[in-house]
Design brief:
By secondary structure, the chain is α+β, with helices and mostly antiparallel strands. It contains seven helices and seven strands; from the N terminus they run ββαβαβαββααβαα.
Length: 249
Amino acid sequence: MKQLHFDIVSKARGTTADHIRYIMRKGEFAERDDFVGWNYGNMPSWAWPDPEAFFLTSDKYERVNSPAFIAVTFSLPNCLSTEQNVRLASKIMDAVARGMPYMFAVHEVTAFQSGVRHPHVHGMLSGRVDDGVDRSPEQTFRRYNNKHPARGGCKKVGCGIRPAEIKNSTIEMRRIIAETINDELYAYGFDDRVDHRPLREQGIAREPVPYMRASEFREMRESQSGCAHNRKHHPEGGAPWMPPEPWSI
């Protein structure tokens, strides 16, 4: 069994535009070469052709004390092709969203030394589940009206739940991701499997392997390039630097 990398965090208003530019590799991130695909689902009719507009509208009209969106990040199997992983990412996001509006981007970073691919997903989720009521973009993010739903915004899934429920929901999301990945690995004939449980629950007595982010990959590349330059021009060849490469599925 291999370990699943998974991260989830709520994002406040004012962060959405930067996050979209980052995951979609736009603006200052456009020169990066690791963007390989994206998709979206469960959008209301007004946002169906443009999911970015949905999250940008959330950033503008969502209540101040409520997150504009939930960001999730998880690893994908590097034994699958890029196209297979993009399709797998769609299956995973649709499964964990459970009707919630979402969009995601798949990035595929290649390790500098070994050439190993490290595909992963950056997903965005909103608790504003569409209930079939025709609302304007602004009204979608208003407070829900229990007595007269058409007069208020969409009901927001996850609001007001206890910390223990949040923890259980996160564990369940990890389980869904791992099971969806394993089903896909089985379908393509691979023996590898991932496990969403902590190492302690798996009976494995070792420290978790730290996950390396894309920014750390870039720093590695720059440092490696600098070392190669030093070895070429330094009279004694320069000092080699061999950082550990991150583990990936």
